[in-house]
Amino acid sequence: QVQLEESAGGTVQAGDSLRLSCAFSGLTSTTSDMGWFRQYQGKERFPLAAIDSTGILTRYADSVRGRFTIFRHKNTLYLQMVNLTPEDTAIYYCAAGSDYKTIMRSDVDYWGQGTQVTVSS
Questions:
Q1: Are β-strands 10-13 and 115-120 bridged in parallel, bridged antiparallel, or unpaired?
Q2: What is the model's pLDDT at position 74?
Q3: In the prediction, which pLDDT does 29 show?
Q4: Kindly report the CA angle at 59 between 45 and 8, in degrees rounded to 5?
Q5: What is the phi/psi pair of residue 47, to 5°?
Q6: Partners of 90 in the beta sheet?
Q7: What residues have CB less than 8 Å from 56, skipping those under 6 apart?
Q8: How far is residue 13's CA from residue 100's CA, in Å, rounded to a whole number?
Q9: In sequence order, what are the residues at sequence separation of 6 or more whose Cβ sits closer than 8 angstroms to the Cβ of residue 112?
Q10: What is the DSSP string of the chain?
């Protein structure tokens, strides 16, 4: 049974940094690439970053490249976010799929439950 569980997000101020984590278990060798998405209220989930099973290959959405970093260690996926702005306020989801490239096209097999991040100005 696949389980993805994000850490609590929280409320931070503009300019702050925040690291999200996602503990995972039960992934198979064919579904072990992972990614992070976010969802604004009333909008679809949008892919932010993805990483392959080795942790070496990554991809980023243009909107977060240079500010967000995805990495993984053992059974935890991370998203390090810096210089946050109110526009980063959203629900953040971790996800797992078969290919980090297609995860960036929202081809996902499993989702976490989501965690709220709020950035105040």
A1: parallel
A2: 94
A3: 84
A4: 50
A5: -75, 135
A6: 117
A7: none
A8: 31
A9: 4, 5, 6, 22, 93, 94, 95
A10: --EEEEPP-EEEETT--EEEEEEEE---TTS-EEEEEEE-TTS--EEEEEE-TTS--EEE-TTTBTTEEEEEETTEEEEEE-S--GGG-EEEEEEEES-HHHHTTT--SEE---EEEEEE-
Q: Among all chains, which residue has been given the structure tokens 């290959």? A: 57
| 30 or 86: which leads in pLDDT | 86
Confidence of residue 116 (pLDDT cuts 50, 70, 90): very high
Q: How far is CA 24 from the centre of its chain?
A: 12
Closest C-alpha to 90, from 57, 47, 119: 119
**pLDDT tens-digit map of 68-85:** 999 999 999 999 999 999
Average pLDDT over residues 29-47: 95
